[in-house]
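job 3f2a | input accepted
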Amino acid sequence: MSTRPWIVDDDLWALIEPFLPPWPRPVPDRLCLQSVLYVLHNDIAWQLLPLELGFGSDQSCWRRLARWQRAGVFDQLHRVLLAKLNAAGELDWSRACVDGPHPGKNGGADTGPSPVDRRETGSKQHLICDGRGTPFKVITTAANVNDVTQTLALVDGISPVAGSSGRPRRRSDALLGDKGYDSNARRDELRQRRILPVISRKGSPNIKGMGKLRYVVEQTFALLHQFRRLAVRWERRTELHDAFVSLACSLICWRRRKKTRS
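job 3f2a | predicted structure (262 res):
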């Protein structure tokens, strides 16, 4: 990884620039995006952005981040990168994996008492990825929301992925989940979507070999939390937190795309 990972190279900028809405401000969009990446990687307060890097004021940067999120900039970038990975044969549609550990937070929207952290207020990230750990979708909820309630939202939240012959794809052949996703009703819903549910049942031994297949989702969470801003949620506004999450998913896809081209 670059020693300055917040620097936006020309290839990435060429992908993201067409999605950016007009913003009549003196600080160029590219510099502002680099300020967002600086915060994402280093987990510093907005007001501590180094002025010598030319990022502009903290308010200008986070307001533009919110505007980009409302315009769907990072979701569009994520879809484009998924399509490029799909075209290169780098997505594994044989299975998708779900999980839902949570970063802590002290207040704000979409938070609730954590059932595993002395009832501290916090939020949870629910993730679905492909069989190689490429992130498809992340949903933020309160920490006391059960994982099983987000199963279908994650599955249905995958945008159609182009890049291969035929219609864009959005369904994996199977869905792997731990006992937190045990629900006969959810299994029936998945089968209706032509997805094979491979989910361990409560009170029974885990499905043999499940851990070996599901390790990729833990690996993806580890990649997300290498972006220090996501290891612990500080944004009180959910849209800002979701913007950081969506951007981080895009960057994971971007790095994998660069690796396939090297």
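job 3f2a | DSSP finds nine helices and six strands in the chain.
job 3f2a | closed
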